[in-house]
Amino acid sequence: MRTGAFFFALLIAALAAASASAFAQGDATDAELVKRGEYLAKAGDCAGCHTAPQAGAPFAGGLGMGSPFGTIMTSNITPDKQFGIGDYSYDDFAKALREGVARGGKHLYPAMPYPSFSKITDDDMHALYAYFIHGVRPVHKEAPPTKLPFPFNQRWALALWDLAFSPEGRYKPSPEHAVEWNRGAYLMQSLGHCGACHTPRGPAFEERGYDQSSKHYLTGGVNDHWFAPNLTADPGSGLGRVQQREIVSFLRGGHGGGLVSFGSMVQVVEDSTQYMSDDDLNAIAIYLKSLPAQKPSGAYTPHSRAASLTATAMHTGEIARPGSGIFMSYCAKCHQADGSGVANKYPKLAGNPAVLAPDTTSLIRLLVEGGSSPETKNGPERKKMPAFAEKLTTAEIAQVLTFIRTTWGNDARPVATREVQTLRADIHK
Ligand code: HEC
Ligand code: HEC
Ligand code: HEC
């Protein structure tokens, strides 16, 4: 009898414990879903575009994005019922992200990377939705509207654009490749929308390819006056000479293999890639290193005769090539006379793929405006590159860029004064 009561008590206790843990698990799953959504929102850099500069409230919109049609303002995507997406059902949300059609039927401009987001899996989409509805603070404030001139203000026409250019369907894993490769491909092609900057665009602003089946995919593109370089295995201006672990370190802390992220990549590292897990960054690097070289351009031959002659001449001060004096006076103290840079502070210029790029937009813009390296939770501290708009003439900027593109074994085409002039006029600097 006593043992019977004991077992009965034990049974009750066990049932109570089981039901308590079932409740706890219910909560944990929701909290976990929101947490996973938060991670995915970082991977998709939703905050980077949906937050106004100068301390705008997170996700409340109001960042103006330059596009060939004019400035497009990002929307408030906090769960505010009036000004945000508080009234969005899951289906509304998925449709906006994948098809570029907001609740109520408004067609979105492809400045919102829905052509890439169309590949997001259903699981990830549910997690993102849970985060935006339950994990983000509503902001009761209207984002400034987009005002484009005719005919670009005719949003209905975007439906035709979508028919012609926007890919459809979720990411389809490739059975020929390992799990990591597929994870990297998925992250880059969907949430990461890396191709939005790194893939060249066609005449209608469409990306010329959304995966490795296109020879244009990730071969470099200009967006908002920054050139995002070739990420295929091209040994000159691509990632051919950059190791997998260096790519991981570059994405995690903005520094890797002597390269330092600059221009629009600084925000990508600060807002997005620094938060990705080591496994995910590794997967991205594995995928990147698998891409065959496309559109080769520029070359680096550090041990050539010409390279060693220059090195000797620079040490003995005999060198009289145009641009060399400017380099020694204005650049060498950080980037070093031999172009080797300083680890975790200043990028190397010798053999730096971005320096060898066929498109010089980023190089010219960086020299004119200056810049600063990303500040991340685990990476090296922020360092500044000064602006040279006041210190150097347009011709001198062309000369020093030509110098760094043709010295230490670097071999890329010279930069013309006219190119510098044109870009300065475009960016009003
Ligand atoms: C590269 C910039 C960029 C990124 C990254 C981005 N968006 Fe957007 N998004 C935009 C722009 C621009 C618009 C407004 C487009 C328009 O008005 O046609 C927009 C619109 C939206 C809308 C429609 C809201 C409405 O009712 O007007 C939703 C929802 C949205 N984005 C969600 C997201 C989420 C979630 C993410 C991250 C997974 C994200 N966006 C990432 C640029 C971006
Ligand atoms: C907003 C535009 C933009 C987006 C989105 C973007 N990048 Fe970049 N990226 C750039 C620019 C501009 C550069 C050149 C400056 C530099 O080297 O940091 C660059 C450089 C790089 C480099 C160094 C290449 C080199 O030769 O120096 C790597 C690697 C890279 N990006 C990977 C990625 C990955 C992976 C993603 C997606 C998760 C991504 N980028 C998304 C603009 C972008
Ligand atoms: C005070 C130190 C300093 C001086 C002087 C300086 N730079 Fe830089 N440079 C940097 C830093 C820091 C970066 C990274 C900038 C960023 O991330 O926005 C950089 C980046 C670059 C890059 C992009 C390469 C990459 O991988 O990030 C080029 C090209 C460059 N500098 C050329 C020059 C030239 C040419 C001069 C002289 C006219 C010069 N720099 C003078 C500190 C300096």
What's the helix and strand layout?
Layout: H1 2-43, H2 46-50, E1 64-67, E2 70-73, H3 90-99, H4 114-117, H5 122-134, H6 157-165, H7 179-189, H8 195-198, E3 221-223, E4 226-228, H9 244-253, E5 255-256, E6 259-260, H10 265-271, H11 278-289, E7 299-300, H12 305-316, H13 324-330, H14 332-335, H15 361-369, E8 371-372, E9 384-385, H16 394-405, E10 410-411, H17 417-427
Antiparallel strand pairs: 1-2, 3-4, 5-6, 7-10, 8-9
This protein binds heme C (HEC) (3 copies).
Describe the protein.
The chain is mostly helical. The chain has two domains: 46-144 and 152-165, no CATH class; 179-427, Cytochrome c-like domain (Cytochrome Bc1 Complex, Chain D, domain 2), CATH 1.10.760.10. Helix content is 42%, strand content 6%. It contains 17 helices and ten strands. The strands form five sheets. It has a two-stranded antiparallel ribbon. The chain has a two-stranded antiparallel ribbon with strand order 3-4. A two-stranded antiparallel ribbon has the order 5-6. A hairpin with a 2-residue loop joins strand 1 (64-67) and strand 2 (70-73). The radius of gyration is 25 Å and the shape is globular. Mean pLDDT is 91; it is low at 1-26. One heme C binds at residues 259-262, 266, 330-331, 333-335, 346-347, 349, 352, 354-355, 363, 366-367, 371-373, 383-386, 388, 400, 404.
